[in-house]
Amino acid sequence: MERRRLLQATAAAAGAVPARRVPGANDRVVMGLIGCGGRGRYVAGFMKEAPNTEFAAAADVYLANAEKARQWAGPRARAFQDFRRLLELKEVDAVLIATPDHWHATCAVLALQAGKDVYVEKPLAYSIREGRAIVNAARRHGRIAVAGTQHRSSPHFAECARIVQSGELGEVRFVRVWNYVNRSPKGIGNPPDSDPPEGLDWDFYLGPAPKVPFNRARFLATYRMFRDYSGGWITDYGTHRFDTVHQIMGVDQPAAVSASGGRFTLKDAGDVPDTIIATYEYPGFVLSYEGYLLNGHGCGGRTPGMKYYNMRGNDDRPNGMAFYGTNGALFADRIGYEIYAEPKQIAIWGGPSQNSPEPRIEPRRMNTTDATALHARHFIECVRERKPSYAGVEIGQRATSVAHLGNIALRTGRKLRWDAATETFPGDSGANALLHRTPRKPWDLVRF
To answer: Quick one: pLDDT at residue 310?
Structure first.
């Protein structure tokens, strides 16, 4: 109980209310965008739709993207190649950080030090220790800090949490999460090294990551296929679903993890696993995660008339979560949920097979829409009203850590015990060495 109160206090502190400026309900919130690719401009568009909100500046190491964002933001907006120039603008109240993962922590910590509120796209950080640095900086500087885990803004996931935590689903001892997509046979291809495009500062793009020649596979949409910049599929898609498991099950961290997998089939330029199965032990239940890049069907099976997130074929169900209770199973994804009921049992197991057709729980289903727009506007509301977020960076850190734990277990090849209070593997120096990467000089701008 004490640890739970400590986590709640930390989460609140990570979105605490400072003294620099307190916008009123009619005051304008001035934003800056750091990382101006497709996702950055997409989320920024929803923030800009909030009343009295404008984007005054955009920064990207690729000037073509910074200029696109500047033109979208309006004639008074400014474009920078170095995000530190944006942070010098006193009129900017808050920033949206949508860079590649390996830059999240440096940008966020420096922004918080500069007195800006921050919204950080998921995964929160490249490593567990970098994520903790963001949380600590938010608390130390008293700024609003929100993770881009938009499932937290989805009403249907709140309803799923109510169903499970009320006991309506019965006892839930097994949870399954899956992310499937078929990238075979060529994956992201094997393009040759080349000169970077005009307007790209490639060394700045690499930043704290190892120095390598420019290769278009390492840039923009496919960077997450490289361990230099990301944890792969599990940190990309898995982070959202781990966060939702935490929300629905009322937990925050596992106690142990093991993993199997590797890069078996894809022979492209990337190096993250094309197959990873991770098993997490939580108090009272087990979570199984499946990340598979060689088939798109996932759990399979659809209900006529339902829509499923990222559905591509006629039968696939590529992303989702399943909560298996003694009264029924709840299957959910970003745009809906379904409950499949267990029949009422009227005979002792091993006796005559007699099950009542009456269900133990009411079967039901619903579809909704992605909550990114709600989440983006929620951040603006937090900035304007100076209130903590229900998706603060402490919560984002806990979800992102689960993904990192799966990767660390895979790399070590053994079952690991996890101490969530200290964020370490007790007595395991080899696993603890994977909690952080030493940034490349001169891009070690923040001490982690």
So the answer is: 87
